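Quality-control log, excerpt.
Job 1 of 2 completed; input and output follow.
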Amino acid sequence: MIEIILPALIGGLGVALVAGPLGCFLVWRRMAYFGDTLAHSALLGIALGIAFSVNLNLAVVVVCVLMAVGLVFLLQQRQIAGDTLLGILAHSSLSLGLIVVSLMKSRLDLSAFLFGDLLAIGNSDLQAIYIGGAIILTALKLLWQPLLAITVSEELAQVDGIPVAATRMALMVLMALVIAVAMKLVGVLLITALMIIPAATSRRLSSTPEQMAVKASFLGCIAVILGLTLSYSFDTPLGPSIVVCSTLIFIIVYSLPFKSLI
C-alpha cells in the first residue's frame, strides 16, 4: 500500500506548495478563466508530445506558453470580449487535442491526464514536480513585489518603472509550468481548481498577501492528503477527490462567523 500512496502523496504536497501562492494571483487578478484556458490547451500539448515522441512536460509547457503569448496579444486587440475569446480558445484547444489523439489511433487512456491517476505518479514525475516547483517558487520570490504592484494597479506600476508586460507574461509562464508539473496528479481539467480554491479559502484567514500565499499552500496540502485518502479508500479519481476535499474546506471556512481580512 505504501508503495502506491507515498509517490502520490509526495507529488501532491509538492504541487500544492507551488499552486497555492500562484493561485493567489489568479484570485487577486480575477484570472480563473485565463487559467482554465491554459489548462485546456495542455491536452493539445500532451497530444502533440505523444505524436512527435517528445517529453510530455516540455510539450505542455511549450504549448501553454505559446497559448499565453497568443492570449495576451489577442486580448490587447479588444476586438472580441475577453471572456468570449477565452471561452473560444479554451474549448477549441481542448477539442483539437482530443482530435489529434483520435487521429493517432492509439489506445491512450486520457483519463489519467484529464482527471489525475494515483498509479501514474512515478519517480520521473516526482523529479519534474520538485525541480519545476523549485524553479517556480524561486521565480515567484524574485517577482513577488512586481507582481503585487501590477495586481494593485498596472498604471502605477508602470510609472514606478516596472515592466508591466514582461511581468504579466512571466506570470503566464509560471502558470504554464504549474500545469505541466501537476497534470498527472490532478489532471488538466482540474488543476485551476487546485490553484484557486485554497487561495480563495486562505483569503478569509489572512491579513497580508504573504500570509494568504503561505496559508493557500497549507490548505492545498490538507486537501491533497484528504483527497488521496478518499481516492485510495473508495477507488475514486484522484484529481476530483482532491478538488472535492478542497471545496469542503472552503465551505467550512466560509461558514465561520467572521469576515475576509484582505
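Job 2 of 2 completed; input and output follow.
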Amino acid sequence: MKQALRIIAAAVLLGLIAAAILTVHGDAPKAGMIQIPNGAQPLSGFLATPDKPGQYPALVVVHEWWGLTDWVKGETQKLAEQGYVALAVDLYRGKVTNDPEEAHELMRGLPDDRAVSDLKAAFDYLNTRKDVERGHIGSIGWCMGGGYSLQLAIHEPRLAACVVNYGALPTDATELQQITAPVLGNFGALDRGITPDDVHAFEKTMTGLGKRVDVKVYDGAGHAFENSTNATGYRPEAAADAWARSVAFLNKSLK
C-alpha cells in the first residue's frame, strides 16, 4: 500500500511540474525550419508563429551576411512573441559563418535577382497561410538583410511595411519610386559602410518622392550595433531603442 501511495504521489508531482512548465512556456512561439515553395529551387527558412491560434500580420525576416544564425533565429522568435508570423529566409542555402572573409565571399556569391526572388517566394508563402492576415505583411533585415529588406519593398508592391537596419541604401529615384510601403531605418553614426551622408541622401530622395520614411542615426554606434554577438560593436541602449522603434512602427503599419 505504501509503495502504491508513493507511486501516486510521484505521478501527481510530475504532473504538477509538467503543468508548471506549460504555464511558464505557454506563450512561447512555435518555431522551426520549413521548406518554402520556390519552383524548382530549394529554399528553406526559420518560421516562428505566435502560440495562440488566430490570424496575425506577418514578416519576412532577412539575415545578415553571416547567414541564418542563431541570433537571427532569436530575433525571429522575438517578433513572433510580438504577435507576428515571422519567417527568416535562408538566402545562403544552409551556409553559416562567423569568419568575416567567408561572409564577404558568401555575400558576393549571392546574386541579387536570386535573393529578391527568394524573398518574394517567402512573401507569397506567407500570403497563403491561414494564420496570416493578407495585406498585412512586412519585412525587416539587418546589415546585408537590411538592404534586401528594402529591395523587397522595391520589387513587391504588396509589402505593407519595411524596416532597414544599417542596410545598403539606393538613391536612384526610379528605383525608390516603386516603393509603396512606409520605411523605417536605424543606422549608426560611426558606420563606415552606410554613412550618415548616405542615410540623409536616401531620406532626401524618399521625401522628395512623397514616400513615407523615418530614419534615425545613433551617435556612438557603428555597423551592426544591434547584434548582441558583436563583441566590440554592440551598443545595448541604441539596440534597445532601435528595437522599440521597429516594433512600434510595425504595430502601427501592420496591425
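Post-run check on job 2. The helical segments are 2-25, 70-81, 100-108, 112-128, 144-155, 173-176, 196-208, 236-254.
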